[in-house]
Specification:
Two copies of one chain form a homodimer. The first copy, chain A, is of the alpha/beta class and 716 residues long. In chain A, 28% of the residues lie in helices and 22% in strands.
Chain lengths: 716, 716
């Protein structure tokens, strides 16, 4: 139990006009030092004048419809691709926008847009020369077609409905005016936005922190016309919605080559974050990030010139603002706010190079939560939701400092939920105590340095693309979530880092976890002989390589897993179907705990029969341990984050790094963190059962009994 | 019930010396007209002089050990590849033969062999120049290596133990001398073999048919040194064991380019039949087939010159003798004998262009059967085995004529199994009656022409590579087995056939069933725009394309299934993980019966939402029907042959070809064939339960009651 002396500060409360008394009462109960407005609410004077810091929310590119209608070209764009059309004669007509939501998109066929359009013969996979097609009245006509081939049009269009507003309208039946969004590449729009922000700052003297939600470009969200497939594509991490003729022209000017529609639409697949970015996409991401940082810097300067701070809420229109990118710190934000469900999101937030790190806890104060289940409405248990989300966050917060917490939504909904209010009070106290311990000195970390290796490396530290529930199908997010609360040193590295860095000097363990061809496994990056050399050397000299799913997978070599010689296991892609399989006995006393794999891969085989099989299914090895030189290759066919599997991962890491099991509870449901400067241990129960456990310390074993979900502080 | 008047002829009995009385007694019971010897047996005069035709078995390349030891270069060869070895310095030493069974292989480092060896840097995937490596005393030394790279040696070796003999020794603990095998590419060996055959013919005047088992080159079977992985590679259909310096030299002379070790060892994967042959392998297969046919012709001429017939038993050393290849008929065989477990093998045999088609039934007269279960020993039920294998064969025999049947093994084992002897008597009668009906005129076939499309086409009609139990993991063998007994016209076509032939004029349905990248799906063949055009045209004009597993799959295009526009379904390879999925309702009244798929593919998605979903799993469509132009695309994620799924396939075919359901029983367990010239229907029960069923005929419905596994003849 954490003492309730940690009762004030570092807490952002969503104020609500009309509920001034409740606002101030809960501000006191939860120890808030800051009150914020929410989307669609405005704080009354009774609140703004009560002595609290005031956060005000701004979505800079939205809510300028008059300007947008006057300057349609100042609106944002994207590429779209038509559905393929069959040539039954030598002429094909295509309505490009057919199948897309016409309230979201509007064809832009101006000359400077049209030059980026492409017509493709998809059967032959080649673009059609410009002179063979024409556009008129919403229809492209292609001549000289090959009969029975399929043709597509990739085209530029304006986005005429800001996507978050569109989502709220279509989901919650809003009826207000559709909001549009401006593109800061447009010179007039950019002038207008700066002026607008200055005016706003002048009109809002009580505001201490301007919270940007976020900057300019929304994540990609493409709606279809059919209610049977409304959300045709959504990717939190991709860059399609930054596209405009102006942006592409500027890119060509700087990089000396032009991007084309196909670089984005990719035959209809688009360029999802989960696939490795092409060199051209990497260039484009860097270019856009530089552009966004420059413009954002100008906005932050305006905010600062009014004596206010500028925080950014890392969501929605975040694209181009990579918090681990090379330009983020040049913006000069005073803080970053991340809404979190999971531990990895806390670590993502905590690791950003910015003065203040704030997390927005769940549940939001909404009647209905994620996936449509009730929260603050009949059947809801918001206090349990709060504690379970807190359980996810807490173990990450024990590893790295977060500066502030807060809530979002409509405060009046908490009425009638006193247990929720008590839970938040408790969470806030626990948070403050953990923060204080961090302030006194870093927690003890086991001498185990883990490098998570994927296509983006540091740029996409901790996250893949969006929240856990949006990415649960990717094993790496389970690994990241498990790692977020483990007492080890974790860094994210790219293949370039691995090829050029000192792996042996920097890491004890390297993890590669993904499906063949995806950004997390690495795809063609594994065709580099130099990369194979470096990791082979690393393991041979005593490092450990952990591969999950289809690690180091690439076509065209003697093995499918390019590190099969390290792992001792490989995957048969059909060309080894007539090979014999090594017989094996499953190891009876593995050097670390072994959980069953949640998903079986039936195509695995031992390469040379040396690897120890730790887990098998139907005679097929699913988890193996292979010694290689002084080090190890460890393979898991799949991984799903649970307390047991997170513990298994920890034990694997400690085995690999030859660490003592210090400050680790012997019950996987409980975790411990030790803060040596404060001589204080925090032991948490991640389960809803009571747990009695022992924790090994340098002075002996600590016996700890924990109530369900309890946080216990132990002075030593 | 078939009348037992069909009591004599077309039956080959394995005679056994020492059991002359039994031999003649069973010959009478089963109506044998021919008696054969078996491997390791010799017929006594009492048998050979009893008035029966006499088959004598010859394995022409085996049993010449004295000659082989005198002329070691006349023995057969193969390429092998060493296991990869890690470079820890700039010099690597490799013992090529390490890990292989030294009783099977012997390194051939003569100059004309050595020139075909290759050392590879597998990390960089490139061959090492010849001047950087040397071979001495069983070890290859490679200099100038890159540290941490892996190196292999691909080398030529002599095969010093004939593989079938080796198998019998190692499996049945034989202790006799290891038999070697001669290579007819060697001029002295070839002279010797011809002389040997002449001598043999002279010494065996009673023999009426010389049964070749088979010709020169065994299917590939590579043994390892470890008992944990004895059978390192086995492929009934591949050509590795035809390799020799002489064969490769001759190939280069004729084709103007040289093959190299990598063309065979393929980085250790070898070139399994289930993967599409490269153009170089195709050239080589054609070259070897021509060579084998020329040499075989010379042997057959010798046999004929002695007034005997020459049959070939299509097994073991069959490689290069492709019964559907362009050279087979030039050999001049008088008959082909195929040992069969399944219907597809009967069709394979029946379709060969040769005067006599004989099938060898199972079970063989051995104590233990397939997979080690007892047959003619305690716990065995040989009569049930015989009837169940007959059940598989029977439905195929109803579709196409087989001329003879027979047994193999040791006749004395039947003593004490009178039920087996009765079962064979019954089977022989039923076989003769079915053959007679075929002789009177072909059975009624529904007007549905099916083309099975894969990489080999006609060359590998019906078979993939070996028996069903060796290939059950490939869906196509299930399709072939189902088709083997269906009353439709079936042909096997290659992608070249499909590109260049008149599909619309030739077929109603085209089936493509395989995993991405394999020979049955087709791999890179699907990159041809012309192929896509032709099938698109075929379906648009009214044909039906049935795709199973990953049909028409190829990387590098807008869809993974290149015929996704026809099927309305495609597979997400990871790049559509953020796309929306079309919602659908499963069709409630499908136009044909629908069985659940035996294996789910979770990555499928509807392309444009138009396809009707016939079966789904967890919200993912698994079986779809899509109209396209005048025709249909039908997709099944998997298929396993059962009476119900074979019936589903038939109904799909009839739906596609718009056929009436004539001469089809309404119970899937029963099948019917109608012989119009004989005005006779045969109705069979493929189950071990009694079945009462109705069969639709042009004159009305026929009610038929069938005992378990019964064959019923109905005169109309």
């Amino acid at each position: 139990m954490i003492s309730n002396q940690y009762s004030f500060g570092d807490f952002t409360l969503p104020g609500e006009s009309g509920y001034e008394e409740l606002t101030l009462e809960l501000a006191k109960k939860w120890g808030a030092d800051v009150i914020r407005d929410s989307d669609g609410t405005h704080l009354s004077d009774a609140i703004t004048s009560a002595g609290y810091g005031i956060y005000s929310t701004i979505c800079i590119i939205r809510q300028h419809n008059a300007f947008a209608l006057e300057h349609p070209d100042a609106q944002q764009h994207t590429f779209l691709i038509s559905d393929p059309v069959l040539a039954r004669t030598d002429t094909v007509t295509i309505e490009p926008l057919r199948g897309y939501f016409e309230e979201q998109f509007e064809i832009d066929a101006a000359e400077n847009s049209l030059k980026y359009w492409q017509v493709y013969d998809r059967t032959q996979n080649e673009p059609i020369p410009r002179e063979r097609w024409t556009y008129e009245n919403g229809t492209v006509t292609v001549r000289g077609c090959k009969k029975w081939h399929l043709y597509t049009v990739s085209f530029m269009c304006r986005r005429i409905w800001e996507e978050i507003n569109m989502y709220n309208h279509t989901t919650n039946n809003w009826t207000s005016e559709h909001l549009r969004q401006l593109d800061p590449t447009h010179p007039l729009a950019w002038e207008y936005l700066q002026k607008w922000l200055k005016d706003w700052c002048e009109q809002n003297p009580a505001t201490t922190v301007v919270r940007f939600t976020s900057l300019f470009y929304n994540f990609v969200w493409i709606f279809g016309s059919s209610m049977r497939n409304r959300s045709r594509f959504v990717d939190w991490g991709s860059y399609d919605f930054t596209v405009s003729p102006a942006m592409l022209d500027a890119f060509e000017q700087e990089y000396g080559y032009a991007l084309c529609a196909e670089d984005f639409v990719n035959g209809g697949k688009l360029r999802v974050s989960h696939m490795p970015p092409t060199p051209r996409k990497r260039d484009y991401m860097r270019f856009v990030s530089r552009f966004v940082a420059q413009k954002a810097r100008a906005l932050v300067d305006i905010v600062h010139s009014y004596g206010k701070k500028a925080y950014v809420f890392y969501d929605d229109s975040w694209v181009g603002m990579e918090p681990y990118g090379e330009y983020f710190t040049t913006i000069g934000f005073d803080g970053i706010i991340k809404c979190i469900f999971s531990g990895f999101e806390c670590r993502l937030c905590a690791g950003v190079d910015v003065p203040t790190h704030e997390i927005r806890l769940h549940p939001y104060l909404f009647p209905v939560g994620l996936g449509g289940l009730p929260t603050f409405s009949e059947g809801g248990h918001p206090e349990r939701d709060a504690l379970l989300y807190w359980k996810n966050a807490r173990r990450a917060l024990l590893r790295q400092k977060i500066d502030r917490i807060g809530l979002g939504g409509y405060l009046h909904l908490t009425q009638g939920y006193p247990a929720f209010n008590d839970a938040i009070e408790r969470i806030a106290c626990e948070f403050r105590r953990i923060k204080q311990l961090h302030t006194e000195g870093a927690p003890y970390t086991l001498p185990c340095r883990v490098g998570v290796l994927h296509s983006y490396g540091k740029l996409r530290s901790w996250t893949l693309s969006g929240h856990f529930h949006e990415t649960y199908m990717h094993t790496l997010i389970h690994i990241n979530e498990a790692l977020s609360g483990l007492p080890v040193d974790v860094r994210f590295i790219s293949f370039e880092d691995a090829e050029n860095g000192d792996l042996t000097g920097s890491f004890d363990v390297i993890i590669n976890a993904g499906r063949a061809g995806d950004a997390w496994s690495g795809a063609d990056a594994w065709k580099s002989g130099r990369l194979i050399e470096r990791i082979t050397e690393f393991v041979y000299n005593g490092g450990t390589f952990i591969g999950v799913n289809e690690p180091s997978a690439a076509d065209g070599f003697d093995t499918f897993f390019r590190l099969a010689h390290i792992l001792g296991i490989d995957e048969d892609r059909g060309d080894r179907v007539s090979h014999g399989r090594w017989q094996f006995e499953t190891v009876q006393d593995p050097p670390f705990s072994v959980c069953p794999v949640p998903r079986v891969n039936e195509s695995l085989y031992l390469t040379d029969g040396r690897a120890c099989v730790l887990f098998e299914n139907g005679g097929v090895p699913q988890m193996t341990l292979n010694s290689f030189g002084e080090g190890y290759g460890i393979y898991l066919s799949s991984f799903e984050n649970t307390p047991e599997s997170a513990r298994m991962l920890l034990e694997i890491l400690l085995f690999a790094a030859k660490c003592d099991k210090l400050w680790i509870s012997d019950d996987a449901r409980a975790e411990a963190a030790y803060f040596p400067n404060s001589k204080t241990a925090i032991v948490v129960n991640n389960s809803e059962e009571s747990v009695s456990t022992c924790v090994k310390t340098p002075e002996g074993t600590l016996k700890v009994s924990l109530a369900p979900l309890e946080t216990k502080e132990i002075k030593l």
